[in-house]
């Protein structure tokens, strides 16, 4: 323990399970780091059952979760506004409530942490005279792109996606134009200006926390610490890799899917592929058909979390797990009968972290959201990368071309419907074929490297210790 001073970190979370989950894990990690640390997490009131099941039981005496009143943005954004626009406007509108909640606290916060969409609340940290951090619960390459985007905005003319040359970010892997994050796809859309704004706000924090570990992306992290590379652009704001922070097994609700785990218990080791597209991902009708056939043809055991098909790949973002799901309206005829015993179809939502940590699971067909990616890697599970939205195209490229723990389609799935034979081939490659051997090996190595980083004396352990220590020093000033 660093001193007798009491550190009280207030963490502001954006809505959406992909944001709340890593914020909760950061909170838990902080209170576990030192007995003199208390944490209060501020989250928007839940909009889905899955969200309330995650938020409600999370409070402990040292980690308090406070729900901020819901904000109504219906009059402020277009009904068809993009996800990043909605999140940005919600986080803007919630500021007054957040500010007064902070001011009214019996034990005043001594440190402020906001996540990616909360950067507009950083000045509240200045008002209170406390250090402020930005928690980007994703990887360093994505952070690098964001930090460099205000420069790209000035230097690049026309749409990024129309370029033929890759986008160069100092000291980092160049980015294929088609891999840019969603808000960069169309520079005339409101979400692009929101994006450029928060990219420029990130370096206003006293430091940035990332949900990776040093050994995962050493070169990219080095670029932030080099004045001649990204460091020159970002004014050398310190970047702290403190992950991999993932949900522990059986967190939150009791095992609701008892049958599913009974079935998993009976399957051979690493024989089941888990198919799921995050809290909000969906497929088109035609792609669902090919997916079903591909799984069946692969002759592998599977668990498939299914949502009704849509034409927009992030259609379920704000409703994760809510709604109806009538399988008979979109599953190929006879699929359920033919795959009985071999595969399980779970409508809408499944306890993913528990499933991925089960010894019977040997592969993950994933949309490459960063939480899902970490849950796969920390369980040593190789992936099929099927990016849909947000920064997932970058994540998929990182996983396949740099880390070598995933396979992906020949032509990206957002360009055309991927046929059943290709799906069959990818599933067999990561699950059974000889040429998937290296991929399966590398993900096991990464799992160990992540575990080591979190242990006492490991890189992520030390990085969090630095942040905590610095905040403790600030207390004494
Ligand atoms: N998740 C889950 N069950 C589901 C779908 C998602 O438990 O059926 C969890 C998943 O384990 C992960 C989070 O929701 O922790 C999704 O976050 P991620 O960053 O992967 O993607 P996002 O949903 O933000 O696109």
TrEMBL record:
Keyword Translocase appears in the UniProt entry: no
Keywords: Glycosyltransferase, Transferase
Pfam families: UDPGT
SUPFAM superfamilies: UDP-Glycosyltransferase/glycogen phosphorylase (SSF53756)
First-tier enzyme category under EC: transferase
E.C. number: 2.4.1.-
GO MF annotations in UniProt: UDP-glycosyltransferase activity
Similarity comment: Belongs to the UDP-glycosyltransferase family.
PANTHER family, per database record: GLYCOSYLTRANSFERASE-RELATED, UDP-GLYCOSYLTRANSFERASE 72E1
Protein name: Glycosyltransferase
Organism: Rosa chinensis (China rose)
């Amino acid at each position: 323990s660093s001193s007798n001073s009491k550190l009280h970190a207030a963490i502001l979370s954006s809505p959406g399970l992909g944001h709340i989950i890593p914020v909760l894990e950061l909170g838990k990690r902080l209170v576990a780091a030192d007995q003199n640390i208390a944490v209060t997490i501020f989250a928007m009131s839940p909009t889905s059952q899955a969200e309330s099941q995650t938020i409600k039981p999370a409070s402990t005496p040292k980690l308090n979760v406070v729900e901020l009143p819901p904000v109504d943005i219906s009059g402020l954004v277009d009904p068809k506004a993009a996800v990043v626009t909605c999140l940005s406007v919600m986080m803007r509108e919630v500021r007054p409530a957040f500010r007064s909640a902070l001011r009214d606290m019996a034990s005043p916060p001594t440190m402020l942490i906001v996540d990616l969409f909360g950067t507009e609340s950083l000045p509240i940290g200045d008002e209170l005279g406390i250090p402020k951090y930005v928690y980007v619960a994703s990887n360093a390459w994505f952070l690098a792109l964001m930090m460099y985007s205000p420069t790209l905005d000035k230097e690049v003319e026309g749409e990024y996606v129309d370029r033929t040359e890759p986008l160069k970010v100092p000291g980092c892997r160049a980015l294929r134009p088609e891999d840019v994050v969603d808000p960069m796809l169309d520079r005339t859309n409101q979400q692009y200006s929101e994006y450029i704004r928060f990219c420029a706000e990130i370096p206003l924090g006293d430091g940035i926390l990332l949900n990776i570990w040093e050994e995962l992306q050493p070169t990219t992290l080095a670029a932030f610490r080099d004045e001649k590379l990204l460091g020159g652009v970002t004014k050398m704001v310190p970047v702290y890799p403190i992950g991999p922070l993932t949900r522990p097994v059986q967190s939150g609700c009791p095992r609701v899917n008892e049958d599913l785990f009974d079935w998993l218990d009976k399957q051979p080791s690493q024989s089941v592929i888990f198919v799921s597209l995050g809290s909000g991902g969906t497929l088109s009708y035609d792609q669902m058909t090919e997916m079903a056939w591909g799984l069946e043809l692969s002759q592998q055991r599977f668990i498939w979390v299914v949502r009704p098909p849509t034409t927009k790949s992030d259609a379920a973002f704000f409703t994760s797990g809510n709604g109806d799901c009538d399988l008979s309206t979109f599953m190929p005829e006879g699929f359920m009968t033919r795959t009985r015993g071999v595969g399980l179809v779970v409508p809408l939502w499944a306890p993913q972290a528990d499933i991925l940590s089960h010894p019977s699971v040997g592969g993950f067909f994933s949309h490459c959201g960063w939480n899902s990616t970490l849950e796969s890697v920390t369980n040593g599970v190789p992936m099929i990368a099927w990016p849909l939205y947000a920064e997932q195209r970058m994540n998929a490229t990182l996983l396949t071309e740099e880390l070598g723990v995933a396979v992906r389609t020949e032509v990206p799935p957002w360009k055309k419907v991927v046929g059943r034979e290709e799906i069959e081939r990818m599933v067999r490659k990561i699950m059974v074929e000889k040429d998937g051997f290296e991929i399966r090996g590398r993900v096991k190595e990464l799992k160990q490297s992540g575990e080591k980083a979190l242990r006492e004396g490991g890189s992520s352990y030390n990085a969090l210790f630095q942040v905590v220590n610095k905040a403790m020093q600030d207390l004494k000033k």
